[in-house]
Amino acid sequence: MTESDPDRDPDEHVRYARYRRAFADVVPEDGAGLVARVLTDPDGAMAGSAVREYLDRRAVELFTDPGYPAWRAEMAEVVAANDFVSRRLREWTLLRAAAVGEPWEADELLAATDWCQLHAAETSTAGAVLAALVEGGRTKRIRSAAKSRSRKVK
Questions:
Q1: Which of 1-5, 16-20, 25-29, 35-39 has the lowest mean pLDDT?
Q2: Which of 100, 102, 103, 132 is the most buried if burial means most Cβ atoms within 10 Å?
Q3: Is 95 in the same domain as 141?
Q4: What is the 3-class SS of the chain, one letter each residue?
């Protein structure tokens, strides 16, 4: 770490804030390059967190956009070595599939993280998603949220 390399400030909090600013300003076509660069940070947990935040924002922006599959493919290649970020990308893709009527598997949803299940329970309008979570959601909070949401979307 040298002073000439601003991304390698010894303080991970400073680097994290810098990465967040860079992700806020990056144009979409440069996103994959920035993700790849950030994931080289020696603090893998911090780097993964910064990338995950960007990934969440872009996934929401592209959720029903026809460009999502190409973006997902590009991101999947860049984040393949980071299990945390790769899983989040797979979960966004699962959530999107259910939302836009593409094939998805209930077993995959029920094996997903609490974050994914809760997000689906709180936002999905797909009856099959909500039914799966009412019956098999991992936590009481997830099952309750799915039950409440299913009443609202009927």
A1: 1-5
A2: 132
A3: no
A4: CCCCCHHHCCCHHHHHHHHHHHHHHCCHHHHHHHHHHHCCCCCHHHHHHHHHHHHHHHHHHHCCCCCHHHHHHHHHHHHCCCHHHHHHHHHHHHHHHHHHCCCCCHHHHHHCCHHHHHHHHHHCCCHHHHHHHHHHCCCHHHHHHHHHHHHHHC
**Both 24 and 41 in a single domain?**
yes
Q: Where does the pLDDT of residue 10 fall: very low under 50, low under 70, confident under 90, or very high at 90 and above?
A: confident
85 shares its domain with 118: no
Domain that holds residue 136: 105-154
The pTM of this model reads: 0.90
Q: Do both 84 and 20 map to the same domain?
A: yes
